[in-house]
Design a protein that fits this description.
Strand order of the largest sheet: 2-8-7-6-5
Shape: globular
Bound molecules: ligand F0G
Structural class: alpha/beta
Number of strands: 16
Radius of gyration: 22 Å
């Protein structure tokens, strides 16, 4: 059969309130053209993030009811620990409330002034936690990874040459670990190849630098290796995921992505001494080592989610539906980061709105146009998120790309929802000349994308 169906049935539904363009214009105005300020109930298709927005299965909900809420040594903890150990083979398993909690513990232990931590691309919370510790975060993705239209099967790869150069420049003793983010969210949800992981591992090994994975989307990365890398096409996603973890000395995981849960995270490591220190910090700020800031029911849901996510039919549907969205936008002439990644499509907003200068936020203007036209909520990853104003000179620095991310929640939307998104983006594209730029009227000191207020620039 050519048609790929959602490999699940729907037992419980949530209504979507359909608003009119006039209503949405008013909602946008009240939100000061910042979609983070729009109540979710006034969104038709919510593509703000794929994090914590998954639909759980009947088995996950059943596990929630079975959750053992004992403070120490709960049954749910032992199930969770067994599942994560079988999946990763890594001995020390610390449950945390989400990915950034794992990052905070890890970098409090290994970060600090004078340390340098490379990655293909650090996610914003990872970078923020590294910098908060006083260390420096360095992105070493291959050049293709920063060029939206260059096709490469593994645009998330870390450039081994850049890693060698960094080690030669700063010295291995200043590099407490090297991270690799799979898939590379900040670079467009692009996968990292097994060959690249081997190469990075070999360099790290030679210099006695531990290799850690940011493994939020490990299953999607494993499936893209199966699809794109020679020699892996007959391996199961589970075997590929295990081969990825076998190369790592540890990992941080936000289970809100491939854990298929609404909250949860994991910190993994092989080193006994580091694990002991991490457990002490875990107890200090998250919770006892057998629940780490979560309820027993959350551990059950994660254990089940980490199992279901490696189902090959699920991954086929998942990766294909994102790819389908990307292909249809490309056919209509919309420029996106190519090829489509695992969890999201990233529209090149600078190419979409060439008439809007970077100083008038083309990505944010496109986000607003998508909401106004069809009630779709996307997120700007461009000058609003990364533009910096020098407090002394007032001079503005802009990021290299103006992107709009359409992140697809897992198991939430059907094919017709995706068709609706395609139709909406294409219609907005056809009338792109009418999209107007924005100016900021109010902004906080940090993380301005969440709360900044905008107004339309006169047309
Ligand atoms: N690492 C990566 C690669 C991520 O994408 C995220 C979260 C985190 C770490 C942090 O995990 O949110 O559980 O603390 N990404 C979300 C997103 C927020 O929308 O891409 P967290």
């Amino acid at each position: 059969m050519k048609t790929i169906i959602e490999p699940f049935k729907i037992k419980m539904v949530e209504p979507i309130a359909l608003t009119t363009p006039q209503e949405r214009e008013e909602i946008l105005r009240r939100a000061h053209f910042n979609v983070f300020q729009i109540p979710a109930e006034q969104v038709i298709i919510d593509l703000l993030t794929d994090s914590g927005t998954s639909a759980m299965s009947a088995e996950q909900w059943a596990g929630m009811l079975r959750g053992d809420e004992a403070y120490a040594g709960a049954r749910s903890w032992f199930r969770f620990e067994r599942v994560v150990r079988e999946l990763t083979g890594i001995p020390h398993i610390l449950p945390t409330h989400q990915g950034r909690a794992s990052e905070r513990i890890l970098f409090e232990l290994v970060g600090g002034r004078g340390k340098v931590i490379p990655s293909n691309n650090h996610f914003d919370t990872t970078r923020a936690n590294i910098e908060h510790s006083g260390a420096e975060a360095v992105d070493l993705v291959i050049d293709e990874g920063t060029q939206p239209r260059t096709r490469h099967p593994f645009k998330g790869n870390l450039d081994p040459r850049k890693l060698e150069e960094l080690i030669a420049r700063v010295g291995a003793r200043h590099i407490p670990l090297c991270m690799v983010t799979v898939t590379n969210n900040s670079g467009g949800g692009q996968p990292v190849s097994m060959a690249n992981l081997h190469e990075v591992r070999e360099i790290c090994h030679r210099h006695a630098i531990p290799l850690f994975l940011d493994a939020c989307r490990f299953a999607e990365n494993a499936y893209l290796i199966k699809r794109r890398e020679r020699g892996w096409d007959s391996a199961s996603p589970r075997a590929i995921a295990r081969a990825m973890f076998d190369l790592a000395d540890g990992a941080t995981i936000s289970a809100k992505k491939d854990g298929l849960v609404n909250i949860g995270g994991v910190l993994l490591m092989r080193d006994d001494q580091l694990a002991e220190r991490a457990n002490n910090l875990l107890i200090l700020t998250e919770g006892f080592v057998t629940y780490g800031g979560l309820a027993g029911r959350d551990l059950e849901a994660m254990a089940q989610g980490f199992t279901e996510v490696l189902d090959e039919d699920y991954l086929h549907y998942r990766v294909r539906s994102v790819e389908y969205l990307g292909e249809h936008l490309l056919e209509a002439g919309v420029h996106i980061v190519e090829p489509p990644g695992g969890h999201a499509i990233y529209i090149d907003a600078a190419a979409f709105c060439p008439h809007i200068p970077q100083s008038q936020f083309p990505g944010q203007a496109l986000v607003c146009a998508l909401y106004r036209h069809a009630g779709i909520r996307a997120v700007e990853i461009g000058s609003v998120m990364f533009g910096r104003v020098d407090p002394d000179t007032g001079e503005v620095s802009y990021p290299p790309m103006e992107l709009v991310r359409l992140a697809v929640p897992r198991r939430v939307y059907t094919q017709s929802h995706i068709d609706y998104v395609v139709e909406a983006v294409v219609e907005v594209f056809e009338r792109r000349n009418t999209i107007r730029g924005l100016r900021i009227v109010e902004e906080p000191r940090a993380l301005r994308h969440f709360t900044a207020q905008f107004e339309a620039v006169a047309g």
